[in-house]
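Annex B. Sample input.
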Amino acid sequence: MGSADIIPGVSGGTVAFITGIYEHFIVALKSINFRFVYYGFLGLFKKKYKKEAIESLEQIDWQFLVPLALGIFVAFLVFANIVGFFLESFPTYTFAFFFGLILSSAILIGLLHRDIFSVISVIFLIIGCLVGYYITGLQAMQVDHSYLIIFLSGIVTFCAMILPGLSGAFILLVLGQYEFMLDVLRGLTRLELWNLTYAFVYVLGGIVGLLLFSRMLSHLLSRHRKQTLCFILGLMIGALRLPLGYIASDSENLSLIILSACLGVAIVTMFGIFDRRRRKHMISESNM
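Annex B, continued. Sample output.
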């Protein structure tokens, strides 16, 4: 998810969907409640609030969120330079790879969730396609890099990161902050500590956005699951506009483009096989 979120046009939410952890991810985010901070502060003065603070902490799905957050963080640090190199040196083949990844992901999700399709949910699928197509066609804004702008960018992009089909990195690109924040991330890998303040403000905004948006998504998935999943699937299909645009602008070596796209399809297929085996294993265990 972390490596995908660095790339404009690819969503970490898509990776979560492919690997079968998406709904668990949304529920785990919803479990985060900062009441423990409030009760912890009150606990400094009254002991009865310490128990409330501990109970609030225990309700958070740490077992799921901690390894996931560590994986995303490590991917940010490791892949910032690698992704930057491929996007600068081989943009067409890189986006062809992600075209194959996104397209096959949409097909896989459709096959895994056949029960979601109905007349009404298909309307939401079409709306999602149109929204994804429109957003990926937006032009970059010209704005400064103040702490307020970075904070607001964190809110918006982290919300986009958990929606399959909407790339947080691309939204950051639209907001005119992508290159700046990529330089900040690269600076951190070189231990340039002046970047820490920008990274902190961005992540703080992201946490605020995640906590608010995950609750709304969790509500939609529990009350209107079919329509929500179809809308998300539509976002993924509409978002194909971005990689297709890059491929169409430079399609000299068609064989390498097809090979790159097939590599993306192969990776999703591998995840699909893994998810199918995981589901069978879970069913066999439940029947024991």
